[in-house]
Amino acid sequence: MANQGLEVALIDPGKPWQNGMVESFNGKFRDECLSMEWFRSRTEAKVVIEDWRRTYNEVRPHSSLGKMTPGAFARMLDSTSNHGAALKN
Q1: Is 1:8 a contact under the CB 8 Å cutoff?
Q2: CA 82 to CA 65: how far, in whole Å?
Q3: What is the pLDDT of residue 87?
Q4: How far is the C-alpha of 67 from the C-alpha of 3, rounded, in Å?
Q5: How many CB atoms lie within 10 A of CB 70?
Q6: Which of 36, 48, 59, 89 is deepest in the core (most CB within 10 A)?
Q7: What is the C-alpha radius of gyration for the chain, rounded to an integer number of angstroms?
């Protein structure tokens, strides 16, 4: 990896605040999905996890987005940028 100009970035053991966003997501994933299910097969796990992922990304409001869903936030940004582009013309 060094020959490609990449470095490995690891957080120190026992210091989850060094990567708070990932740690927060992992906690939500564990609490809202993994701890709620008992998977009988990999196929079942894939289906349940994909359903949770879609809900997380499309339905569930996020506090970091002003309690909006990611989809609604993206539409707002898109309409704002389109509106701004129309004003420039």
Answers
A1: yes
A2: 20
A3: 45
A4: 43
A5: 16
A6: 48
A7: 19
d(CA 53, CA 56): 5
3-state secondary structure at position 60: coil
Sign of CA dihedral 76, 81, 83, 84: positive
- Among candidates 80, 21, 25, 86, which has minimal Cα distance to 72? 80
**Inter-residue contact 52 to 46 (CB < 8 Å):** no
Cα–Cα dist 53/43, whole Å: 15
pLDDT, one tens digit per residue, over 56-73 is 988 899 988 999 998 889
